[in-house]
């Protein structure tokens, strides 16, 4: 135990000594850089004075370490020559299109889906220090997230539930990119393309459904018409005068069509008398 404590104390002592040496060296180089910038005035102003716009921030590194105070900007800031460099970060909302993804849905149907993602950098320092390329990483993550989420839905849900799919995708992306300093504001499913054979099958199914509905409607109409005709026949049969009026109405309709011949229907009662004789 004593040996282990000694090793731990020795390691900590070495680490503290290295940190102190680095700080001492950094301070010396900083002093030299400031002196050099002062001696080369006003020429050094062109290299030391930098400007970032309202929508930008500058992440400054001094001797490979992040400068205290976080990102600089907007406005003017100073870069010490030889020991400091900086990276500009755009804080505006950016968009990118997710390339078409061939996805196998839950019911084993292959579809091609496009999407668009809206995002922005909310922490410039983290987006530079925690990931090599935050924008490229977000694009790759959006592709895999889209495939993974669509794999949990069947085809019918993919076609009618785009809003819920977009919300789920935004939530997953936002949680994953938060440690990169990225805020995913919105995702949208732009297009869902089905295989040609499946489109034809769905069109045939829809056409068959429409024809079936048309036949049902026609059958219901025939049924209602037959009932109305039956009721009319019962009413007319109770009155001989009504039958004669119906004959005259039929003759009027036939004569209005400019036919060459006209058929005069005879009352059945009159024919019955001749049959008896």
Automatic annotation (TrEMBL):
Residues 47-206 form the Band domain. It is found in: Membrane. Belongs to the band 7/mec-2 family. The chain crosses the membrane at residues 28-52. InterPro entries: Band-7_stomatin-like (IPR043202), Band_7 (IPR001107), Band_7/SPFH_dom_sf (IPR036013), Stomatin_HflK_fam (IPR001972). One of its GO terms (cellular component) is plasma membrane. SMART domains: PHB. Keywords: Membrane, Transmembrane, Transmembrane helix. This is Band 7 domain-containing protein. Its main location: membrane. The keyword Transmembrane applies.
């Amino acid at each position: 135990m004593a040996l282990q404590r000694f090793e731990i104390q020795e390691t900590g002592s070495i680490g503290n000594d290295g940190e102190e040496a680095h700080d001492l060296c950094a301070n010396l180089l900083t002093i030299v850089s400031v002196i050099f910038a002062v001696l080369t005035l006003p020429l050094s102003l062109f290299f030391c004075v930098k400007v970032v716009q309202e929508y930008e921030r500058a992440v400054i590194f001094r001797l490979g370490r992040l400068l205290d105070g976080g990102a600089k900007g907007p406005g003017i800031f100073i870069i010490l020559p030889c020991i400091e460099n900086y990276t500009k970060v755009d804080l505006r909302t950016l968009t990118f299109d997710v390339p078409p993804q061939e996805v196998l849905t839950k019911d084993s149907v292959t579809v091609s889906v496009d999407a668009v993602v809206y995002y922005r950098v909310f922490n410039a320092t983290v987006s530079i220090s925690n990931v090599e390329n935050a924008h490229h990483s977000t694009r790759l993550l959006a592709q895999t997230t889209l495939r993974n989420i669509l794999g949990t839905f069947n085809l019918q849900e993919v076609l009618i539930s785009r809003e819920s799919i977009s919300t789920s995708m935004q939530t997953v992306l936002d949680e994953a990119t938060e440690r990169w300093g990225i805020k995913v504001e919105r995702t949208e499913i732009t297009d869902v393309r089905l295989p040609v054979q499946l489109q034809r099958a769905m069109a045939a199914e829809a056409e068959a459904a429409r024809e079936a509905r048309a036949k049902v409607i026609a059958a219901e109409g025939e049924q209602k018409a037959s009932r109305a005709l039956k009721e009319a026949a019962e009413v007319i049969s109770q009155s001989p005068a009504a039958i004669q009026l119906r004959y005259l109405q039929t003759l009027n309709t036939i004569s209005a069509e400019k036919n060459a011949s006209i058929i005069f229907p005879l009352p059945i009662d009159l024919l019955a008398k001749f049959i008896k004789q």
